[in-house]
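Q&A log
Question type: sequence-to-structure
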Amino acid sequence: MKDLYQPFLGSAGICTDSRSLFPDCFFVALKGENFDGNRFVKDALDRGCKFALTEDPSWKGHPKVGVVDDTLRTLQDLARMHRLEKDPRVVALTGSNGKTTTKELTAAVLATRYRVLAAPGNLNNHIGGALTPPVVEGRGSGRSGDGGKPPRRDRLLASIAAPDLGLITNVGKAHLEGFGSPEGVLKAKSELYAYLAAHDGTALVDGGDGPLLNRALELGATVKRIGRDEDLFVEATLVRQQPFLELEVVLAGERHGLTTRLVGAYNLQNIKYALAIGLEFGVPSSAMLEAVSDYVPRNQRSEYIRGNRNQIILDAYNANPSSMREAIRSFLDYGRAPGC
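Response status: OK
Response body:
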């Protein structure tokens, strides 16, 4: 692995799609049900990649190509090696709903004080997790890449990211095609708690979420509770939504007003989690509130678009039953002020 780590370090970045090659990249030829990146190794070299990783044995001996039995597993091993070599603090996020928005808000909050690397867009599966430590989220949906049961996906993501802190946003009716039931989803997602318990990490858990709190404690994780009068004192109440969320926020006992560019009352939980992580990292309240206020969603989640004749609330990316329910409920309650 060390002979591959040097070209990995010396490259300008990782590329797994020959259509998106860039100069001096480290090209990893991945193979799936409907594609085979091994067919494009020559094309990648011709177009300026610095090094290519393939499963095709015909490339053995080429100075700019590494031949391995499993390119995906090798990519994951390289990512794990790199994460341990650099030793950053890592926050891992997973859950049924809200993880991408929570990740984006968390990155914005932490970036006010730290250098932050967050998974761009939706690089949140067993491939994306290997491409983008250290602030990562794990989806764990569908079938695992090694042919095992779906819960192994979250275990694999945790082992790649090696997080210090972990947060499960919630457990709902997402990915039931892979996990079979909400109980199966809980079992899969709590692989993160199991990893944290085994590696002296800390689980951040909503103090009002009994099933998640009990699961974290059962698995032996060190737990910090989020909520009013909890370890991480955060409370958020919706004041109005016309169209954007305006909140009253309590951080460590201090009350603040907060205006946002988000729509949808379900985002109160995402905001609360991002602020709690900020508290854990010692980010000043004023900086956190400014970061959340300035955040503008651009990923088909909680977007507000004003046209010449109409207004559009765009929340359409990869919806599952529980997230659709919350989106519809928020639309029906538009203009009211429920609490969180």
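Response note: The longest strand covers residues 232-241.
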